[in-house]
Design a protein that fits this description.
Elements (H helix, E strand, L loop, with lengths): L37 H7 L4 E2 L4 E2 L2 H9 L7 H17 L2 E7 L30 H16 L4 H13 L8 H7 L9 E2 L3 E2 L5 E6 L4 H6 L12 E6 L4 E7 L1 H8 L3 H11 L13 E2 L1
Antiparallel strand pairs: 1-2, 3-8, 3-9, 4-8, 5-8, 6-7
InterPro entries: CRISPR-assoc_prot_TM1791 (IPR010172), RAMP_III_fam (IPR005537)
Pfam families: RAMPs (PF03787)
Protein name: Crispr-associated ramp protein, Cmr6 family
Amino acid sequence: MSNGKYQNKSNQQPGQDAILVIPKGNDIKLSLNSASNLKLILEKYIPFYNMQNNRMLDVSKAKDKVYELKPKNFQEADNYIKKLNERQRQIADKSFTLATKSRLIVGLGGGSALEVSIKLHFIYGFPYIPSSAIKGVLRAYKILEKVNFDFEKYSKFEKKIESGNREDTEIGAFVRVFGNQQYKGDLIILDAIPEHFPRLEEDIMNPHYPKYYNDKEPPTDDQNPVPIKFLTVAKGEKFNFYFKNSQVYKEAFETDLKEDLIEAFNYLGIGAKTGIGYGVLDG
């Protein structure tokens, strides 16, 4: 080992012990039926190659195989989820639980060899809602509320917030709570953690002109739709939301944080496909 990098065995000096970073042959066996980390399954085990006939699989067939490997035993993941919820309750001064009223998909456009993705916890592999997404939806809703849901005024008011200060009578509340390029917001929003590993359901997108999207050919009626499967969190799954310095929100807007967030989810939704009813949560 030199300069923090693993050396090839051929570079070892005589008499030195070689370190095998990855065991040879069949020393590594992936127990697919007992795999409990969905992120590892979706990102690290994608069976594009069929060992039986030595042929490559296309994306759709590889996706079918990898979706079959969704964890069947969630006990290990549930233990981590329970501990994370306990930890975040100790940090937060305001928390509450909301349930999905429709399917939820966050991170659909993330980079993936499977064409589409889903936001999963980096270490434990369960679906969650990032704090940045929660902040974005809540902030957008409060701005819309301020401009009476006029989308033309929305962009102008948002620009004022980005260039304004905390003492401005018109936009000061937004700067204090959410921050801008010059100031850090006082409201701390934590990731929303599920109460347990949520049920997952498959859904499809059905682009009607695949050659137009993939090969830049004209969108003609002789092209066959190619369904694109993706995973979603099912309706009726509960997520715990956590906030620190929540009194700042009450003082700035004189409204209830939980009620406003529910209104934001019902009006805007969160994640992808909100235009067709995805991403709605309620108390």
